[in-house]
Amino acid sequence: MKATVTWLEGMCFEGLSESGHKILLDGTNPGKGASPMEAVLLGAGGCSAIDVVSILEKGRQQVTGCVVELDADRAEQPPRVFTTLNMHFIVTGHELSEKQVARAVSLSMEKYCSVMKMLDKALGASSSFEIRQA
């Protein structure tokens, strides 16, 4: 996997992935784009959400929505790494099995999510979920 990050102006940069997708990164708070740490947080949420939906669909669950609320704490001093991270999954669907949703969240957090596997070495991660019937 390859990517490039190009300086645009000030503390604003454009990231370009090998597959041609762009992301605006900004070190100014607030800036024109996500900060690099916000991008990491969003990557963790996206990675886990993809896993959860995929696992549930393979389990023949009728998923109609999935939202991940992320809450992370950062170290006070540089480097300001994440020290804790909680992911709260809100899964919506028809007659969803609580057991299967719990399993999907657990498998993502502990086995499949590549981003979480990297972050897990550096922080305390936790997860929770709720089910909403569509």
From TrEMBL:
Species this chain originates from: Oceanisphaera profunda
PANTHER family, alphabetized: PROTEIN YHFA
InterPro entries the UniProt entry points to: KH_dom-like_a/b, OsmC/Ohr_fam, OsmC/Ohrsf
SUPFAM superfamilies: OsmC-like (SSF82784)
Lineage, broadest ranks: Bacteria, Pseudomonadati, Pseudomonadota, Gammaproteobacteria, Aeromonadales
UniProt superkingdom: Bacteria
Name of the protein: Osmotically inducible protein OsmC
